[in-house]
Design goal:
Helices cover 20% and strands 32% of the residues. By secondary structure, it is α/β, with parallel strands linked by helices.
């Protein structure tokens, strides 16, 4: 992965201008929930639907330099991450989380040093039946995200680049 920190890019707008032909820009469906508004890292992917087992498991592992991208199918019925799982993410050094779905405990999430983008907040938690898949390409908000892609997020949105492309231009 190219050497950069979570705030080492000017903006997603500047990145788009630089990589216009190949940048993948997510549809503008995300809201900011974490304290960090600007974050970046290597994509770690999960596909799950109303079951946050893989999210909890993954954010409980070291995440320095990584962004978890969750294809939750855009479900608005249950939260895929709440305060306890998000606190684990902070403890384990994750840069951020992008969830095509919901979160809960929004007031606490806003105090955590973590980038969090999700579609909405809802009080209902998910079930945990051990469902979901990790480490595969996912489709989130109109774009494909592959494990190892670079995810950049700020107040203007979410932009994804292939790691090789960013590294070649650095």
């Amino acid at each position: 992965m190219p050497d950069f920190d979570s705030t080492g890019f000017d903006s997603t707008c500047d990145l788009y201008d630089r990589f216009e032909k190949t940048a993948r820009v997510a549809d503008p469906v995300f809201r900011d929930f974490g304290q960090r508004r600007k974050f970046a890292g290597e994509a770690v992917t999960i596909k799950c639907f109303e079951d946050n087992s893989r999210v909890k498991e993954t954010l409980g592992t070291p995440g320095k330099g990584k962004v978890l991208v969750v294809d939750g199918g855009g479900s608005l019925r249950a939260a895929l991450m709440g305060d306890l799982i998000a606190k684990d993410a902070v403890k384990n050094g994750w840069e951020g989380v992008v969830i095509h779905g919901c979160v809960r405990d929004a007031a606490v999430l806003a105090t955590l040093d973590l980038g969090i983008k999700a579609v909405a907040a809802i009080p209902r938690k998910t079930v945990r039946n051990g469902e979901g898949q990790a480490g595969l390409p996912v489709n989130v908000a109109g774009i494909r995200v592959n494990p190892g892609d670079l995810v950049f997020a700020d107040e203007d949105g979410v932009l994804v680049l292939a790691a090789e492309e960013f590294g070649a231009a650095a």
